[in-house]
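quick one, two chains, predict together pls
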Amino acid sequence: SQQGEEDPQALSIQEGENATMNCSYKTSINNLQWYRQNSGRGLVHLILIRSNEREKHSGRLRVTLDTSKKSSSLLITASRAADTASYFCATLGYSTLTFGKGTMLLVSP
Amino acid sequence: DTEVTQTPKHLVMGMTNKKSLKCEQHMGHRAMYWYKQKAKKPPELMFVYSYEKLSINESVPSRFSPECPNSSLLNLHLHALQPEDSALYLCASSQARGGGLGNNEQFFGPGTRLTVL
């Protein structure tokens, strides 16, 4: 079964607003990764946060990890129309990644 | 070169056809993966190759046959597929060191959109 469960399933915002997506998982992890997928295309790795880290930044992305609650959040600040995509969290299983169901983000100009 | 390439981009095949999907990377990655993704669903792992050896097969039906001829290439041979096998097939690669495959960022190709009639 899938490890990660993102919410919301879909998010619609205006350009310039911030977008927050959450991911919950069930078992202990070594790391949690976030990926982006534009419609029908391959996935692009955004950020990896290790289990001993609480927060990580990369450009307009901020990821937090709360291992006690088994949850992570991805914040995209000052969103742009080009951020429109599906976002997946992925957790490390037995040597492999398991992807959550994803959040579909729509950023309107 | 940080690109994973996949050919063909689109493939339509009948249930009696035999076809192959190809994936190539030149990043020196020694782990390569096949995923299957249905519409509006997350990618599901099919196979993992580590150092050109099949290390994980996620109970995939035998009508899918992977092959890793060398460290840069990964093929997926298809035979006697069913319409429900229609999906986006994604290839990915990563380093194979540093505590395990999942500890490394995976680089994905653009995928092959497969339609089985």
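Chain B has a mean pLDDT of 92.
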